Amino acid sequence: MRRKSFRKMQCPIARSLERVGEWWSILLLRDALLGLTRFDEFEESLGIAPNILARRLDALVKAGLLERRRYGEHPPRHEYLLTERGRDFRPVLWSLVAWGNRHFAPEGPSVQVVDRMTGVPVDPVLIDGSSGRLLEGPGFRMAAGPAANERTRLRYARATKTVPEVRPRARSRRAAPQRRQEAHR
After folding, report:
1. Nearest C-alpha neighbor of 19 from the set 2, 7, 9
2. Where along the chain do its domains lie?
3. Can you name the residues that pair with 78 across neighbouring β-strands?
4. Sequence-ordered strand ranges (E) for 37-173
5. Number of CB atoms found within 10 A of residue 69's CB
6. Phi/psi of residue 38, nearest 5 degrees
7. Nearest 5°: CA angle at 81, between 80 and 84?
8. In whole angstroms, how far apart are CA 123 and each of 91, 101, 104?
């Protein structure tokens, strides 16, 4: 069964899912960000069937997230290198790690984002680049942008109400070490 394409939708979430929404794609980007570049490395890391791996790598190349570069002639062999677009996926992946650890790891984190120099676990958060404010809770919402079509404008006009939070969660830089200590217990 062929799935619907999100390529022409105005929503940046839908357009992003068109490129990375299939779970193997995100895992391939994870492995590429960890330094894997060769077909056999991806295959071994993921335990993925070669035909599916070839399709997923081709899709990521076509989407501009990976670049295919030949490194061997007989037989022809290629490596897959992250493009700028692929490297820009890193904060999305880190957000998934933090979200997954918070909600789906009752045993505690099996993977963490850490400071490269100190090895100390960090808590990935989204910050507004202009004001430095933490993007969290009811203080922010999505809105139609300048290029939005009428359908998109209507969707976000209907959604201007603040979505009630079930359980507000305090997040401060001071609370992060405490959460990490609790996660290790």
Report:
1. 7
2. 12-87, 90-184
3. 70
4. 66-72, 77-82
5. 10
6. -105, 150
7. 140
8. 12, 11, 16
- Residues 128, 122: Cα–Cα separation, whole Å: 18
Cα angle 129, 130, 133 (rounded to 5 degrees) comes to 75
Residues near 80 by beta carbon (within 8 Å), at least 6 away in sequence: 32, 37, 38, 39, 42, 57, 60, 61, 66, 67, 68, 69
Mapped onto helix, strand or coil, the DSSP state of residue 148 is: coil
* Cis peptide, bond prior to residue 50, ω within 30 of zero: no
Assign domain 12-87 to a CATH class.
Answer: mainly alpha
pLDDT per residue as tens digits for the range 10-47: 788 888 888 888 889 999 999 999 999 999 999 999 99
pLDDT at 163: 55
